[in-house]
Specification:
Length: 312
């Protein structure tokens, strides 16, 4: 991986986050504006970046095999991260009421908001496609293992299955069906999808910048004694383990690079929303999301530099 390209991408992401933080000072960032941002990103921008990747990658039998491979590997990596977070939280915070949250924050990354746009810049349409498939594995893990851990009755019911059906998942399935039957959309549609896909990175970074400005110092201090665990696990330990896994499996270079970058992503942006849905501690989710995103601006180039030296 070209470290210069990575650093330039991180600098651009940082500037976008700063713009978002400045924008939050011009109007009140409340639940309504938060919902609008999330809705546009999740239901419009993310599906379009997925479809754009599929439209610009030549699909064949080997590509479909690699897609299944990346999806299964994503679930394995996410589950391993959650398991590692659970183990460490049980060791360091045996009697804590936040063990479930700490475990999920340790394993589930922001592979959609940041990961897909970053991989699109670094590795082109093919990288963006595999990044989208990896993100689909994250979504699958969130609404299966994650939902099962957070809900009180511990049942995997129809509502859990229904919550797994979202626009990015529909875009992946629909796009792959179109690609499988070699259906070529009109140029007008492709051009529209490409332009809407360009919204993903700026809107996601603006959202994170606004989220940064909503943090209260008292809440940060209150949760600060625990968030080191998911930060360390998600930003350092899990990427190191994934790098060792890539050495062992030796997949194609683009796949290996994409999976490595996705494993380095900070905690998922929707953590606080997920926790609120299941009456868990949404404050620790929001604080970990913001802090991990800020720290990731430094750790991603460092981890990629180390991977370039010792792995790739």
């Amino acid at each position: 991986m070209e470290l210069n390209v990575v650093i330039q991408s991180i600098v651009i992401i940082s500037l976008m986050i700063m713009i978002g933080a400045i924008l939050s000072r011009t109007y009140h960032f409340n639940e309504d504006t938060r919902s609008v941002f999330i809705s546009i990103i999740v239901n419009v921008a993310m599906p379009c970046i997925i479809l754009s990747s599929i439209f610009h990658v030549e699909m064949n039998e080997n590509t479909f095999k690699m897609i299944v491979f990346v999806f299964c590997l994503s679930i394995l990596i996410n589950a391993a991260g959650i398991g590692l977070g659970w183990l460490l939280s049980a060791v360091f915070y045996r009697h804590s009421t936040n063990n479930r949250e700490l475990a999920l924050l340790s394993g589930l990354g922001n592979t959609g908001f940041i990961g897909i746009p970053l991989c699109a810049v670094l590795f082109g349409p093919e990288g963006a496609l595999y990044a989208a498939i990896f993100d689909a594995g994250v979504d699958f893990t969130i609404w299966t293992l994650g939902a099962l851990m957070l809900q009180r009755n511990k049942l995997f019911d129809f509502r859990t299955v229904k919550s797994m059906i979202n626009m990015p998942i529909i875009a992946i399935i629909g796009g792959l069906v179109i690609a499988y039957f070699h259906i070529k959309p009109p140029f007008l549609i492709i051009n529209l999808v490409d332009q809407l896909a360009a919204l993903a990175a700026p809107l996601a970074m603006f959202y994170i910048g606004m989220l940064v400005m909503t943090l209260k110092g008292t809440k940060v201090k209150e949760c600060g004694s625990k968030v080191w665990l998911p930060l360390t696990t998600k930003l350092f330990i899990l990427p190191a383990l994934v790098a060792l896994l890539m050495i062992f499996l030796k997949p194609e270079q683009t796949i290996a690079q994409t999976i490595l970058v996705q494993s380095m992503m900070p905690t998922l942006t929707l953590a606080s929303i997920l926790f609120a849905k299941y009456s868990a501690d949404e404050d620790i989710g929001a604080i970990t999301t913001v802090l991990s995103t800020l720290f990731a601006l430094l750790t991603i180039p460092i981890m990629i530099y180390l991977v370039n030296i010792y792995v790739l």
